[in-house]
From TrEMBL:
Name used for this protein in its record: Holliday junction branch migration complex subunit RuvA
Species annotation: Lysinibacillus antri
Domain II as annotated region, ranges: 63-140
Family indicated by similarity: Belongs to the RuvA family.
GO biological process, one term: DNA recombination
Keyword Transcription included in the entry's annotation: no
Length: 206
């Protein structure tokens, strides 16, 4: 089983990144692909191989602790890899762990595909088992960028963020509620910053 892959990021899409290693392009699904950058420097991604009858999927993470939380989540009945990625993409795994520890079902059901039954199962299966990760897991975030004097020309970045959120399982109806707020915020200048703010809004509006 692979533990990590080192190479160059050659492509970033709303669902996955492509990591080139010795001429082989690895398609790696991540919680937030736009946390990665296309650059010549060698990057290391910790991976998890998920085998299905019809496909072998690779999921990638910037830290071992992030991958460990992903593996814990997919062990819960009702949560598959896509659902686990959506939870990790929230940008605040510690908040998720704390919700499990205090049995906050109302918070957990805000994630795509997580209903009351699945939220209860998460608590039953994981409560008391994630303490070691509580202060260690931290998802990557892009560097803050300066606002462009009240003008926001980054329509492409906003649309990329919307596509990434759809890929995570959020509905068009949910996104329609928050998109105007994102569009008028001239301090958001990158896809990653749109993603981060959108996820915060989504967790507040449900």
């Amino acid at each position: 089983m692979y533990d990590y892959i080192k190479g160059q990021i050659t492509r970033v899409t709303p669902e996955y990144v492509v990591l080139d290693q010795l001429g082989i392009g690895w398609q790696i699904f991540t919680p937030n692909p736009f946390a990665f950058r296309i650059k010549e420097d060698t990057q290391q991604i910790f991976v998890h191989m998920h085998v299905r009858e019809d496909a072998h999927m690779i999921y990638g993470f910037k830290s071992l602790d992030e991958r460990e939380l992903f593996r814990k989540l997919i062990q819960v009945s009702g949560i598959g890899p896509k659902g686990a990625l959506a939870i990790l993409a929230s940008g605040n795994p510690n908040q998720v762990i704390q919700a499990i520890e205090i049995e906050d079902e109302a918070f957990l059901v805000k994630f795509p595909g997580v209903g009351k039954k699945t939220a209860r199962q998460m608590i039953l299966d994981l409560k008391g088992k994630l303490g070691a990760l509580l202060e260690q897991v931290e998802l990557p975030s892009a560097e803050d960028e300066l606002p462009l004097f009240g003008v926001n020309p980054n329509k492409q970045e906003l649309e990329e963020a919307m596509l990434a959120l759809v890929a995570l399982g959020y509905s068009d109806k949910e996104l329609a509620k928050i998109k105007p707020k994102l569009d008028e915020n001239d301090q958001l200048t990158s896809t990653e910053s749109y993603m981060k703010q959108a996820l915060q809004l989504l967790l507040k509006t449900k």
